[in-house]
Amino acid sequence: MKFVRKALVASGLLLAGLVAVLGGKSALTKSRQVAVVPAAVAALSESEQQQAAQRLGRVLQFKTVSQEGQPPATDELRAMQAYLQQTFPAFHAAAQLERVSDLSLLYTWKGQDAGAQPYLLLAHQDVVPVEAGTEGRWTQPPFSGAVADGFVWGRGALDDKFNIVAMLEAAEQLARTGWKPRRTIYFAFGHDEELSGLLGAKKISELLQQRGVHLDFVLDEGMAITQDILPGIHAPVALIGLAEKGYLTVELTVESAGGHSSMPPAHSAVGILSRAVRSVEDQQMAAALRPPASLLFEYLGPEMPQPLKLVFTNTWLLKPVLLGQLLGGHSTAAMVRTTTAATMIEGSPKDNVLPQRARAAINFRVLPGDTTEQVLAHVRAAVEDPQVKVSAIERSRGEATPISAETATSFVAIARTVRSLVPGAVVAPALMLGQSDSRHFVQIASQTYRFMPAVFRPEDLDRTHGTNERISIANYADSIRFYGQLLRTVDDEK
């Protein structure tokens, strides 16, 4: 008993010492937030907000839908482009417009300092279709562009027309005052982002590369300002994506003799395939807390209340605990591992016919630090069945993007702009789980960021690509101000 008591006392002292060390490190961890500077761009008046909302609403009325296997909405795109030219004359007089692949737009607002490195603001004109049969669930018709109840409603209100129009509103205001940029600014608006941007953003990037253009940074859509979403933080949190996960679809196929279902073998092609799919699902790829996800916690940790602050500022020791918590949720698990999603399975065309061929597709979103080749090897090891052929669908294959620097002056400029306009905002780098047009520019840009000045609350998370897509009039007005302030802030950076 005496030995046990001594052991318990020693353990208690050790634990107390550890807590003291962790608490001391937590207390000494300084905030990573940039200083707030006064905004140079004035807020819009109520009447200006309403007028801007009406202009955005008009843009949302154009049905610029991208749909797999369908031609682009050429007439709608051209009509929308004509409206933008008519609506923002000062900017169109100040900047040179080029058409790429006929329907994508590249604007060059030439800077006064030929030696200053240019940058590019990126957005896309196309939208996803409205799922057939869901139109009646919308509070306002999906292509009405209605301005009602303090919101602008319609497909594209968040993804991604509001960014286009907000950029043009900001540029128009500056051009009307006679402001001229010191650095050349490119505005690139692709027309097929929802179909991977191969004719839009990719062609624009190739054109700039041919001209020898190297960009300081690219800013595209992606992450946003969250409110009441992250646990423990009640302040608005602006997440700036430093990288995108890679993409790989793996196909599993099983060949068999087929035949009539009245005389089946022990395991049909579908049965063998199903077992293989389940095996891949059961053997997830290893989780890892590494940049940019780890940087997120480095930035958020000092802003959190205890005991969360204790955990997030001591990941050097508590990483297993944090990983365990993150793996407990679908969205958070995606931050720390290459995800596995079985999405398609095909077999016989009739219920009484044994399939001669069964096929399944498994989609992986590849964590930075993993490669598509590693994923493919992992799947083959997990299946471990000579009856199952494992292959990559090459057209659905792309590596995770390089990780941009959160210490670069361009990141600081974006962070400073956010904090100058959003009181109490916390800015943090993050990993974008999906993909955007920005990945086409990583070869010609020093840094590539994914952020849009939209505020997302819990109830907004399903609106993008979903029902009742909308943006508040106040939020949209703030977005216009954000881009106006950003242009000025970046221009002042040496």
The CATH topology of the largest domain, please?
Answer: Aminopeptidase
User: What class do helices, strands and sheet pairing give?
Assistant: alpha+beta
Largest sheet descriptor:
8 strands, mixed
Shape: globular
- For the residues shown, what is the average pLDDT? 91
Cα distance, first to last residue? 70 Å
Topology:
Elements (H helix, E strand, L loop, with lengths): L1 H27 L17 H15 L13 H14 L1 H6 L1 E5 L3 E6 L9 E6 L22 E2 L2 E3 L7 H16 L8 E6 L10 H10 L4 E12 L10 E8 L1 E10 L3 E2 L8 H14 L10 H8 L7 H5 L2 H12 L3 H7 L2 E8 L6 E2 L2 E10 L5 H12 L4 E11 L10 H13 L4 E7 L12 E12 L13 E3 H20 L2
Parallel strand pairs: 3-6, 3-7, 7-16, 8-15
Antiparallel strand pairs: 1-2, 2-6, 4-5, 5-17, 7-8, 9-13, 9-14, 10-12, 11-13
Helix pairs in contact: 2-5, 2-14, 5-14, 13-14
Could you describe the 3D structure shown?
The chain is an alpha+beta fold. It has two domains: 46-232 and 403-492, Aminopeptidase, CATH 3.40.630; 246-398, 2-Layer Sandwich (Alpha-Beta Plaits), CATH 3.30.70.360. Helices cover 36% and strands 23% of the residues. The protein has 14 helices and 17 strands. The strands form four sheets. Strands 1, 2, 3, 6, 7, 8, 15 and 16 form an eight-stranded mixed beta sheet that branches. A four-stranded antiparallel beta sheet has the order 11-13-9-14, with helices on one face. A three-stranded antiparallel beta sheet has the order 4-5-17. A hairpin with a 3-residue loop joins strand 1 (96-100) and strand 2 (104-109). Helix 2 (46-60) crosses helix 5 and helix 2 crosses helix 14 (473-492). The longest helix is centred in the N-terminal third of the chain and has 27 residues, at 2-28. The N and C termini lie far apart (70 Å). Residues 1-22 have low confidence and may be disordered.
